[in-house]
Amino acid sequence: MSTPAVRVTDISKRFRLYHERNQSLKAAVMRGRRASYEDFWALRDVSFDIPQGSTFGLVGVNGSGKSTLLKCIARILVPESGKIDVTGKLAALLELGSGFHPELSGRENVYLNGSILGLTRRDIARKFDDIVGFAGVEEFIDQPVKNYSSGMYVRLGFSVAINVDPDVLLVDEVLAVGDTAFQERSMDKFLEFRRAGKTVVVVSHGMSTLRTMCDQAAWLEKGRLVEVGSAKSIIERYVDTSHDHHDTDLSGVARHGSGEARVTAVRLLDGDDRSTDRFTTGEPMRIAVDFHAGQRIEKPVFGVAIEAGDGTYLWANNTIDASLTVDAIEGDGSVECVIPRVMLQPGTYTVIASIVDTTAQHVYDFVRAAARFDVPHIGRRESGGYVSLEGTWLQTS
Amino acid sequence: MTTFADLRSSRELFVNLTLREIRGKYKRTALGQAWSLVNPLAAMAIYSLVFGFLLPIQVSEGDPSGLRVYALWLLCGLLPWLFISAVITSGMGSLISDANLIKKVWFPRVVIVVAVAASWLFTHAIEMGVLVVVLLIFGSAVVPWIPGILLMMVLVFAFATGIALMLAVANVYFRDTQHFVSIFMQLWFYLSPVLYPFRYVTEGAQRLEERGIALPLEFIYRLNPVERFIQVFRSMMYDNAWPALADVIYCVVAAVVSLTVGYLVFNRHEARIAEEL
Hints:
By secondary structure, chain A is an alpha+beta fold.
């Protein structure tokens, strides 16, 4: 293979966390030279290569060092030790329109921002119509950008940056700008980029975006490199391990309701009656809701719902839907919702549990994150979305 | 890459940032660029009222120009001073006001400070141009001195930019710098012969000596490079006479030393600016 687009060699980056940082001379003089601080290693001995022409994802939880690494590659931060070699021209999409001057017109700002990103005046003049057309701000180009809507502002920023035409493009969570139409155009631009053999390095928390875009990935945890390799397998392992610790104690969770009856526990049971928080696609699941009613309650309605990890409301079911009438409750008890097959794609899901009255107007108890479960990457896979419809393909002609 | 090589390679960025400063400075004002003339004129009017009329300061006749106008004499020193002061003050704050840019994009940071300084050089050049015209109207034979004046403007620019580079870095680490410097600039203003001629210092030293206190007051006073700059400008513009060679050499040395030290300090701390902001 040819030389890598980016070679990261033994990068370590330290931040100093000052205990009383107030950037004043007085403070510095009072404390003497030894201001009290702790060292925080945002990156520790990280090495990997990003091959040319790849779309490379950096994954990890918040604070794992992904953005720091991206900033080191972009030369904004300087590592304590180690070396980063970049082959070719580099551009970073870290924050769009950050170089804009609000009082200057769109036109002046395109030239200004373009030159900040390393374009010459002639380059910008040549690409000017493309840039403005892509952002869709033709009529406003001679207006000061402070009059732009926030969408126009980031669109123009994105448009300048993407037209820098670098060999290596660094992207930090900026793919989700603008409306749907603009996002589609941006995505097309990225694909064009890839086809042209350019290298893209992406930091994102959107696992589905990463899964569809990237072919290679590196996984960082607490500043250290866990794994580097094919994006698919790394993202799967990352998703599987990043939600390992679930507790079933409901004492501290977010809830509301009048409290005459309370959900005391939500247990997820598998086909063998064992309590678990892992269900593979297609497995049966029973959601047991344990409750305690401090007084006698006539005709309560129990409900459960499932949300995806990103908060999308996927499904809900209650005892009225299932034509189960509970006459009255008092003291401790339990109800169960039986799901024959969990038709969900791999991911993390949250269970919501509630007890309401027959009119559904009065809420006794509503527990937002009563339980959580993972659907691991085992067996069948479908490429996107939340639900698994078990589609199959055949060639018909 | 060194700071100077960076500057060369980012010429376009430098030009665009300078234009941004020039255009942005007076945006949304009715007078626009004319403000850059109004400010020194207002300062001139105030100082002329106070020190030309109420507390008259005696300035000697320009030799050989024969000029005797306090306002013009004042402007020959006031304009360079205002230029130095503007470069230092706004250059010092420039890294902080562009913090957003610095934290998001890599480019040679030195460009920001130098572009701000250059935008003031532009303003200063207009002011000096107008002053030259006015001097001509009042009969000063200033035209042959224009190349010398331009050379001195470049030296002043280098001198002030060097200081701005140092203070810009210092201000990133200690925000007190800007408050401290604003006080210091006032002191510096009164310790430079902008409002009054150097003769007043000599007279002050004599008065002290009569009371038996012998201080090398004139020597200390003349250590201030701004004093030398103003002497040279006045001698060329107001007197139409050759400035003292020693003063010119002093100015060159001050400009070179300031810019070199400023550059070294900036170069050393440049890499860490993004994370300290």
